[in-house]
Amino acid sequence: MGEEVKLFGVWGSPFSRRVEMALKLKGVEYEYFEEDLQNKSDLLLKYNPVHKKIPVLLHKGKPIAESAVILEYIDETWKGFPLLPKDPYQRATARFWARFVEEKCMPALFNCTVAEDREKAVEEAYETLKLLENELKDKKFFGGEDIGFVDIVADFIGGYWLTDIQEIVGFELLTKEKFPKLCQWSDEFVNHAVIKESLPPRDKLIAFFRTRFGSKS
User: pLDDT digit of tens for each residue in the chain (217 aa)?
Assistant: First the structure.
């Protein structure tokens, strides 16, 4: 297309992996730059001076930050494979659940790894996942028959991150007994051809989590 598309990210981050998933689903070619968050590049600080975080998408020299914002930008900029539905109500609903994942689910799940009262933290995380399970109903993906905005935002849950962390840290949360629909969705998600090639190497991810969380199990 002759367009300059660059992505600044971190290999194991579900946030930058979201953007890679969206770009690949759209068939957009891009150049990837791996960041070291302990020694952030001058370019990252230049393109995201407010939060100084990944991911940052650079399109035609213009930076876009924050993964959910980037996903919407990608959807509006490149046609083909829609991430958000056309219907205004359905779009609003998708945004609502994506925000729920970001503002309620993910903080509750991360808290399971650090909370002194892990049992209480797991109970609170369970309640957020139960709401997601109820929203999924009998759909293959949150948007219906194909992957969409909410599925991608929920990659931490549907991909390897949560299942690997709960095993290493030593808590039981996302299981087929407790969440049969979410687990079925997760299986569909990780086995989708584009998603599968967009996920981080699992052995490398597990090794990283063992280093970070292993002592807490």
Answer: 457 999 999 999 999 999 999 999 999 999 999 999 999 999 999 999 999 999 999 999 999 999 999 999 999 999 999 999 999 999 999 999 999 999 999 999 999 999 999 999 999 999 999 999 999 999 999 989 999 999 999 999 999 999 999 999 999 999 999 999 999 999 999 999 999 999 999 999 999 999 988 744 4
Other Cβ atoms closer than 10 A to 136: 20
| Helix, strand, coil fractions of the chain, as percent rounded to 5 | 55, 10, 35
The structure tokens 């109820």 sit at: 134
User: How many residues are present in the chain?
Assistant: 217
- For residues 168 and 209, the answer to whether their CB atoms sit within 8 Å is yes
Q: CA–CA separation, 103 vs 86, rounded Å? A: 24
Structure tokens at 148: 């969409």
Instruction: Specify the amino acid at residue 192.
Output: H
For 147, other C-beta atoms within 10 Å of its C-beta total 24
Run of H or E residues at 65: strand 62-65
Is-cis flag, bond preceding 107, omega within 30? Answer: no
| pTM beyond cutoff 0.90 | yes
